[in-house]
Fold this sequence. Notes:
By secondary structure, the chain is an all-beta fold. It is 0% helix and 59% strand. Strands 2, 4, 5, 6, 9, 10 and 11 form a seven-stranded mixed sheet that branches.
Amino acid sequence: QVQLVESGGGLAQAGGSLRLSCAASGRIFSIDAMGWLRQAPGKQREFVGSISRTGSTNYADSVKGRFTVSRDSAKSTMYLQMNSLKPEDTASYYCTATRAGYPYWGQGTQVTVSS
């Protein structure tokens, strides 16, 4: 089992920044990729970004150049640095991890960007 806990959400103005954290615990020694998804009200959950065990990253086109996913293995924590925020970034953000092909999810943290 893997437990994931997000933190760092809140309210930001357009053009501002926030940093989300995802702390992993449990059987973390064989976690493969980790990532972030988000879901806005009335919309489907969508991919934001991910980072592999080797540190390679992928991003959705909508956040590329603005968001950065990083991972501190020593702290078993993943981060999402969000810069140049836009109102359309408003959503609940979820941390995910994959271990032995099985996905795990955090409870989500709310990000609200005002115009």
